[in-house]
Amino acid sequence: MHRRDAADPLRPFRARFALPDGIRYFDGNSLGALPVDTAAGIARTVTEEWGQGLVRSWNDADWIGAPQRVGAKIARLIGAQTHEVLVADSTSANLYKLLVAAVRARPGRRVILTEPGNFPTDLYIAQGVADLLPGIEVRSVPRERIADAIDATTAVLMLTHVHYKSGARFDMAALTRRAHDHGALALWDLSHSTGAVALDLRADQVDLAVGCGYKYLNGGPGAPAFLYVAEHLQATLSSPLTGWMGHAAGFRFEDDYAPAPGVSRFLCGTPPILGLSALETGVDLMLEADRAALFAKSEALTTLFIALVEQRCAGHGLALATPRDPAARGSHVSLRHAEAHAIMQALIARGVIGDFRAPDILRFGFTPLYVGYADVWHGVDILRDVLQTGEWRQARFQQRAAVT
Question: Where does the record locate the signal sequence feature (predicted)?
Fold first, then answer.
């Protein structure tokens, strides 16, 4: 494994992250690691731009243009045009804005179509939209039947590209095409896709998308999210949150709202500059990496992990919950076990950091920029030891914290 790491073209990126010694970090699909340059970048924003520039930095440091500037950089990672992506708010808030806009753009249609077990906040936001808009309903259909469920009643197909729990990946192009064939719009959550798997929203003719900044983009806890609106829809969709930053001329301070041109109309409140500063550092780092090498390594790491677990941990009650086909999964692997929570707590105590998803999932994320092949080998070695010794049975591993 050390030879594979030595030959890895992405290996130099590991030194660009402030990872603690002795830690195998397999949770970048939940919270990305800290880039070395982030602290200095935030310090510069605080001490120079805020401390010295004061309010002048809205112009001099282009704070006011940060949502579009960072959005244009993310566009390069997801196969979008630079003027189709905007950084703003949280994934949940962006999903709300785009869902309402999409439903209103399809009058006479009543269904937001999704799958049961979609990421909970996506379902909650959709349910909130249905409560708000008369006649709208959320319909959940198992993923194997989702294509056949799209019909003339569907206003919006709302799915997560890579499932947060299982890691299963939808065929985004095929389902978007199916939605279009029936006159519906397609809205994709890319939170577990961006920076993890190859994306080409323009080629797939995706209408709308959202994604977060704190997973594979390494923007830090609670980093601002992004939204994507295809160019051909920008003039016709309207945001339900008509804040002053989405106004055509916000600093004229007019009483009546007039939407800004293009994707900027989906801005709402004042941009979170410190969060944007951290996110931009993470995105810039991602843009330095060769994308083909990135996605090839993602596939290689997940494939290696599955093979090693099945070879070395057999007979201990683990079951693969992630598709075996690399083309049908993202960059994390989930294993089922009846005692998944306690086992994960024991692993974390040994420096192998993944996470638990109820009711029975051990989840391991493989971020190609800083996870190596030797990390995978040693991580599985510790997993086998935890299972063989029954270490997870200790009382301290049975207690559940607020965040799992």
Answer: none
